[in-house]
Write a structure and sequence with these properties.
Pfam families: PALP (PF00291). By secondary structure, this protein is an alpha/beta fold. The chain has helices at residues 4-9, 28-33, 36-39, 59-72, 87-99, 116-120, 122-129, 143-156, 171-191, 206-217, 234-251, 279-292, 301-313, 332-336, 338-342, and strands at residues 24-26, 42-47, 77-83, 102-108, 133-137, 161-164, 197-202, 225-229, 264-266, 322-327. Helix content is 46%, strand content 15%. The protein is globular and about 65 Å long. The structure holds pyridoxal-5'-phosphate.
């Protein structure tokens, strides 16, 4: 049955980069090890790391909408920005390669890390393989202004250019995760269960905001989604997420007003800052690998999963609850953090 959300989404151009839903798997070994099975609590994994282009990850959902609009506008060049180890930059480079569009990346040294693997391995290696043009700026640089300047220069030379801001987290990009909410709701019907809580990392907020907007339009409320902030402190993340959820809902033609108290964000996992490892993240990445044979990344999913483990251990869930942890990809980051994991 077509929902209001499906109908609203269908009016936007979308490049089909996913080619179907990503799987949901039950994490049975984790359920055993964490004592969830005995308590009658289900733990499921939404495999958004399992996609068909560029190594996969959450950014592909946002890029479906950005590139849909870009193709309709005849764009020949995409410029995007991010940290040196940006997954969004890597996936933009991969998608542009697939679509025959020139890709320029303006990357910033936003994390105080200078190991050779951080500089050259992981996403940086893949950006190069996908044929992107890469420029690296010092930490603290205004890369968006640089991208706009570069775009103006290319436009003067006759090129048609799209600039995609950090993480693809505009209202349009967030629609990718509103669409994911619809996908999860369909999978609930197929699985014969209902999720109480969908858990994600929060960086530039588009993943949280899109899911929250989608669940709001499905009549489930924005508080279905809980995120752990990994880029900024809790309040900064919350402001950004409330605004983006509101803008995504407006873009979808809804007049719903987002209540800040219904946007659920936990700031406990940031540690010393964006991209800086925490002991809880290291434990979480190792637990996922050793219990389920699955990879999560050190910057985003690793910190979010650490937060979820903390909530589970503090007994925050009850019998009958079903939790859905979204695996957002970013595993090339593991190679950039080799020294962190090998000490
Ligand atoms: C692997 C991964 N997970 C999660 C996120 C966070 O998503 P968002 O920026 O939409 O909050 C990002 C990007 O920032 C990411 O690369």
């Amino acid at each position: 049955m077509q929902t209001l959300l499906d109908m609203s989404l269908s009016s936007f151009a979308r490049a089909d980069l996913l080619q179907g839903p990503t799987p949901i798997q039950r994490a049975e070994r984790l359920e055993q090890l964490l004592g969830l099975k005995a308590q009658g609590i289900g733990l499921f994994l939404k495999r958004d790391d399992h996609m068909l282009i560029g190594g996969g990850g959450n950014k592909l959902r946002k890029l479906e909408f950005h590139l849909g609009a870009a193709l309709a506008a005849g764009v020949d060049t995409v410029i995007t920005i991010g940290g040196l180890q940006s997954n969004h930059a890597r996936l933009t480079a991969a998608v542009c390669a697939r679509l025959g569009i020139v890709c320029e990346l303006i990357l910033t040294r936003s994390v105080p890390k200078a190991e050779v693997d951080y500089e050259l391995n992981g996403n940086v290696l893949l950006d190069q393989l996908f044929g992107a043009d890469i420029r690296v700026l010092a930490g603290g640089s205004d890369s968006l202004t640089e991208a706009e300047k570069r775009a103006a220069h290319l436009r003067e030379a006759g090129r048609t250019v799209l600039v995609i801001p950090t993480g693809g987290s505009t209202p349009l990009g967030s629609l990718g995760y509103a669409r994911c909410a619809a996908e999860i709701a369909q999978q609930e019907t197929q699985l014969g269960l209902t999720f109480n809580q969908v858990v994600v990392p929060n960086g530039s907020a588009g993943t949280h905001a899109g899911l929250a907007a989608g669940f709001q339009l499905l009549g489930r409320g924005t508080s279905m989604v809980k995120s752990y902030s990994v880029l900024s402190d809790r309040d900064t993340s919350a402001d950004r997420t409330v605004r983006l959820t509101q803008d995504a809902l407006t873009l979808l033609g809804s007049s719903a007003v987002v209540e800040a108290s219904e946007i659920v964000i936990d700031g406990s996992q940031l540690g010393e800052g964006y991209g800086l490892p925490t002991p809880a993240m290291l434990d979480a990445v190792r637990l996922m690998a050793r219990a389920e044979g699955l990879l999560i990344d050190p910057v985003y999913s690793g910190k979010a999963f650490a937060g979820l483990l903390g909530d589970i251990r503090q007994g925050r869930f009850q019998r009958g609850d079903n939790l859905l942890f979204v695996m957002t990809g970013g595993t090339p980051g593991l190679y950039a953090y080799r020294e962190t994991f090998q000490v």
